[in-house]
Amino acid sequence: MVNFTENATVKCTINHDIHQMLSPVVYIFVFIVGLPANCLSLYYGYLQIKAKNELGIYLCNLTIADLLYIFSLPFWLQYVLQHDNWTYDELLCKICGIILYENIYISVGFLCCISIDRYLAVVHPFRFQQFRTMKAAVIVSIIIWTKEIMTCCFVFTHGEVSMDADSHVVCFEHYPIKEWEHNVNYYRFSAGFLFPFSLLAFSYCGILRVVHKSPGTQKKKKIQIKRLVSSTVFIFLVCFGPYHILLVVRSLLENTCSFAEKIFNIYHVSLLLTTFNCVADPVLYCFSSESTYQNFAKMRDSCLTCLGCLRPETKESYPLNTSESPNRPQHEQ
């Protein structure tokens, strides 16, 4: 049974049809594709850690955040298939909601860590070595997880289930949004999206500038690095940009049920876009480090060879971190 700790002050009549049509398709796709992809990525992140590469720590943490959210998808799938009616207790609603937001902001945090790590490796290969160690990566990871858990504990002290106009028990949905959510949404936009995106853009612009000016870098390698950088920024903007922009729009304009009804569909489409981050992250892992890229390439080529679709041949890879500092041990590169 659900215990109501906070009832909706205003019961808006919202059309939830988008949850029955689009959400189940997205959740099932992300679960089927994201679960094995992230398990594989977790394994290769472990190999990076075993090779004493600090990048592996960031990759593993990013994958763990994705896997936690993927494991919560069956609950959200049942929720939307039952016309947004939460049949479990409020504690489980809070846990699933915390995992949802943790996935967004922990993913953002570790994507920034990866971009800064690559920036220091390419732009300042002989400086800031103390920030590119296994110990530093562990400390940064602990800080990110602690910060996000404390933020969630502070934010989610309110009741997160309420009864809507159709007598359905809704989880993590308030229409119109409540007063305490306004400042939280502004914080999410500024500290959870805008500031990390600025760091990511600064890092990758620095990488592109150095690669462009490097006369010794092969043209094909430059193209590969540029594609990696542009795809990372693109995925970041597509997965997280619309959602955070709409958070601000809701905080500024959503005062009545009329506006809540108008923005409901587009807001939930933006929320679904954040879910695709769980599938996009493993794709980026293929280009994040040399050994990971080569292992995926070998596995792909072996499968194609067994199927008779590809003749065995030697292929050349151009991962981003081939510009590691020359004075680092070979096994770390």
Automatic annotation (TrEMBL):
The keyword Oxidoreductase is annotated on this UniProt entry: no
Please name the GO terms that the record assigns under molecular function: G protein-coupled receptor activity
Quote a single Gene Ontology cellular component term.
plasma membrane
Q: Which residues form a coiled coil?
A: none
**Topology in the membrane?**
Multi-pass membrane protein
Q: Does the keyword Transmembrane helix apply?
A: yes
Tell me the superkingdom of the source.
Eukaryota
Q: Where is the G-protein coupled receptors family 1 profile domain positioned along the sequence?
A: 37-285
Per UniProt, subcellular location reads as:
Cell membrane
Listed under GO biological process in this entry are:
adenylate cyclase-activating G protein-coupled receptor signaling pathway; cellular response to acidic pH; insulin secretion; monocyte differentiation; negative regulation of monocyte differentiation; osteoclast development; phospholipase C-activating G protein-coupled receptor signaling pathway; positive regulation of insulin secretion involved in cellular response to glucose stimulus
Q: Which UniProt keywords apply?
A: Cell membrane, Disulfide bond, G-protein coupled receptor, Glycoprotein, Membrane, Receptor, Transducer, Transmembrane, Transmembrane helix
Q: Where would you find the membrane-spanning parts of this chain?
A: 25-46, 58-77, 97-116, 136-157, 186-207, 228-246, 266-287
InterPro entries xref list: GPCR_Rhodpsn, GPCR_Rhodpsn_7TM, OGR1_rcpt
Q: Which PANTHER family match?
A: LYSOPHOSPHATIDIC ACID RECEPTOR 5/SPHINGOSYLPHOSPHORYLCHOLINE RECEPTOR, OVARIAN CANCER G-PROTEIN COUPLED RECEPTOR 1
Q: Which family does it belong to?
A: Belongs to the G-protein coupled receptor 1 family.
Q: What is this protein called?
A: G protein-coupled receptor 68
What species does this protein belong to?
Strigops habroptila
